[in-house]
Structures are given as structure tokens and as C-alpha cells.
Write a structure and sequence with these properties.
Helix content: 10-25%
Number of domains: 1
Shape: elongated
Structural class: alpha+beta
Largest sheet: 6 strands, mixed
Strand content: 35-45%
Order of helices and strands: EHEEEEEEEHHH
Number of helices: 4
Radius of gyration: 24 Å
Length: 156
């Protein structure tokens, strides 16, 4: 969603509640190797404008379903996300948690997608993926460790 700062200031007193649906699939790139897709994202909440600080604060609830690859089988796994996020915007530097505005518009889509990337789990497993999983653990003796070590010659 994109708004002008003046539009947000004008509506802050009586129309500051927000509800919209976003298609964030355009933000998925090859860099997100384990993220396959993002379903339509539901965003609800409100915003406040603080005139003295020239600060706009969005307090949002974000609900979506992302599809990720299983860490073992590479099968697709759906993950439901439902979390709250707060975004601060200002035309002047306030602190590191506040995004500086360049121009007169706020496009919040990229910030919401960034929060989804932060909230997504690091690993997911498909159902029954761990059922037949067996980890082979190799234990080396002290002698093997010292003779095969690339630093063994430095010890001498």
C-alpha cells in the first residue's frame, strides 16, 4: 500500500484504521532459496501521527501463509504466520528503529515483506520427513585428529 504523508496526516484523526490485502510474491527472488511462495497477505491495524516529532507509527497485525522447502526432502511445506509489527517513519532522523522518508510517499509493502522474512522459521520439515532420518555421526580418535590436522606440522 502506498500513501502520501499529507493523506495520512489528514485521515489520522478519524480514519486511521487499516485493513488491506497484499500480493507480496513480486518480492521473492532467487536469494530466498527456501522460500517458494507467499499467499495473499492480510494486514490490519492502525497508525498514529505525532506532529511534534514528525513521526508516523504503524501498528499492524500481519497474517499470511508462506510455502517453504523442507530441509531434508525439499518437499513444499505451508507455514502459517500471524504476528504484530510496528513501523516508524519520519522525515528526520530520530533513532535506528525509524525509517527515513525520501519524498512524500510511504510504500509499506517492502517493510511488511521484510518482517515476513524475519518471522519465517529457519528450517521446516515435511510431515514424516524425520521418521526415517538417521544421522551418521563420525567420531575420530585423538590420534586421527592430530595426524590429519592441517596444523599438525605447526605443532612440531
Amino acid at each position: 500500500m502506498k500513501w502520501t504523508i499529507h493523506e495520512l496526516i489528514k485521515k489520522e484523526k478519524n480514519q486511521n484504521d487499516l485493513f488491506f490485502l497484499l500480493d507480496l510474491s513480486r518480492f521473492i527472488t532467487e536469494k530466498q532459496e527456501d522460500l517458494v511462495s507467499v499467499s495473499e497477505t492480510e494486514v490490519s491495524g492502525y497508525y498514529d501521527y505525532y506532529k511534534d516529532e514528525d513521526l508516523i507509527v504503524f501498528d499492524l497485525n500481519i497474517k499470511t501463509v508462506i510455502t517453504m522447502l523442507c530441509s531434508l526432502t525439499l518437499k513444499e511445506v505451508n507455514v502459517s504466520l500471524d504476528f504484530n509489527a510496528v513501523f516508524n517513519f519520519s522525515t528526520v532522523y530520530i533513532d535506528d528503529a525509524t525509517h527515513l522518508l525520501d519524498g512524500i510517499t510511504i510504500d509499506i509493502d517492502q517493510y511488511i515483506f521484510s518482517e515476513i522474512l524475519i518471522e519465517k522459521p529457519m528450517k521446516v520439515y515435511a510431515p514424516k520427513a524425520l521418521k526415517n532420518y538417521k544421522e551418521d555421526i563420525f567420531e575420530a580418535t585423538e590420534e586421527e585428529l592430530t595426524t590429519n590436522s592441517p596444523f599438525a606440522k605447526l605443532k612440531k
